[in-house]
Amino acid sequence: MQKLAEVCIRRPVFATMLIMMLVVLGLDSYRKLGVDFFPKIDFPFVSVTTVLPGASPEEVESQVSKKIEEAVNTVSGIDELSSISSEGVSVVMISFMLDKDADIAAQEVRDKVSAILGELPDDADPPIVDKISTDASPVLSIVVSSPRDPREITKIVDDRIKQNIESVTGVGQVRWVGDRTRQIQVWLDIEKANAYNLTVDQIRAALASQNVEVPGGRVDQQNRELTVRTLGRMERPEDFARIIVANRNGAPVRVSDIATVEDGAEEPRSIALLNGKPAVVLEVRKQSGTNSLVVIEGVKQRVDELKASLPADFTITYANDTSDFINASFHAVQEHLILGAILAALVVFLFIRNVRATLIAAVAIPTSIIATYTLIYAMGFTLNQITMLALTLVVGVVIDDAIVVLENIFRYMEEKNLSPWDAAVQGTRDIGLAVMATTFSLVIIFLPVALMEGIVGRFM
């Protein structure tokens, strides 16, 4: 490092071009950096969620949770394994050691769960294996309300808004809250079903077997090849009423004889209200590592373009808009960073009382910070509360080193009457090792802060 300083002093053009290169790379990296509130942290924590409709907690425990626990227990690096079995839902939680890669852990758990799918009950939904991610929380919620039927609102929002904003750059996922999807409901009359000696399983099997499209292979006709399909899907709700579920005394028993068919909506599992009125919500989640502010701005711009295609009685508002909070926090830290640099330069001028030294310190601070953006981008970090706080702290380190070196150079100029050129070379060589030792000691002191990710993950 001392040799580099000497070369830069003797080759000012080389030093200027080197600094300009770092500044240009830093400015280019700054444009590409993501902006978020907190850094992305992948905890080595995986959950397996399985739904078994209508099952009691005891049945969920014995038929689902226990089997999944036995399967994933063979994965290496497990720190803690636990499960929660409630009515119809099993959640198995696996916490791994901190040195375990979260992606590898999730894949190993997924492989173990896939191997026992045949042992789970036939009525169980496929298990969902997921890992905890700080990017999982929504960055923006779009609330759509209207006096219309919730099912109609859901259909219009799905066709005209949801499918459009999913293609916005940076959007990872869009989830529903309070939606009411269309569902053909068959309301069974138990007394009539008992009169025909029919069980629920028989009726359900008949509905499933007769509402299906079956591929029939291919048919060769000389120079032509045709694809054969059996079209058995019901196109209208009243078609379900004509399905034959059994034969009794030579007469067919149809769905209309034992049940009522209704073109309705699925059972609500979530609810959304806007000023006390029913609404639907689209929760927008961004892709990992993308700029939250850019994603939110892109989604809002797309929604503004789509408003013209919506009915006049539709109202769109935004909730949980994290861009306001991120902007306020980011600009506050940015303001502190700029004020800290200005005050540091003023302190140098106050004590050294030299315009040239003050100018050197004032230039060293922004160039050092801008050059740091290159490393931040190369290491995959974002501009967030932690990285901006680190830059604010580094301003003090940069100005400390600058003051020490400048003071020693002035000492050689005043006490030994050396020229500025020789004083710069000798002063830097004399104190360079001490400045490096001071800087490295500060790095070691702040090193535990870099390990806070692991400490937080340990107690999550």
Descriptive keywords:
460 residues; five-stranded antiparallel β-sheet; four-stranded antiparallel β-sheet; disordered C terminus; alpha+beta; 15 strands
Series of secondary-structure elements, N-terminal to C-terminal: HHEHEEHEEHEEHHEEHEEHEEEHEHHHHH
Q: What Rg is obtained from the alpha carbons, in whole angstroms?
A: 33 Å
Beta-strand segment tally? 15
- Strand percentage lies at 15-25%
Task: Describe what this molecule looks like in 3D.
A hairpin with a 2-residue loop joins strand 13 and strand 14 (277-286). The chain contains 15 helices and 15 strands. The longest helix is centred in the last third of the chain and has 31 residues, at 322-352. With 460 residues, the chain is of the alpha+beta class. It is elongated and about 120 Å long. Mean pLDDT is 83; it is low at 453-460.
Layout of secondary structure:
Elements: H1 2-10, H2 12-32, E1 42-51, H3 57-72, E2 78-86, E3 89-96, H4 102-115, E4 128-133, E5 140-145, H5 150-165, E6 171-177, E7 182-188, H6 190-195, H7 200-210, E8 214-221, E9 224-230, H8 237-241, E10 244-248, E11 251-254, H9 255-258, E12 259-265, E13 272-274, E14 277-286, H10 292-306, E15 315-319, H11 322-352, H12 355-378, H13 385-415, H14 420-450, H15 452-459
Antiparallel strand pairs: 1-3, 1-4, 2-3, 5-14, 5-15, 6-14, 7-12, 8-9, 10-11, 13-14
Helix pairs in contact: 1-2, 1-14, 2-12, 5-10, 10-11, 11-12, 11-13, 12-13, 13-14
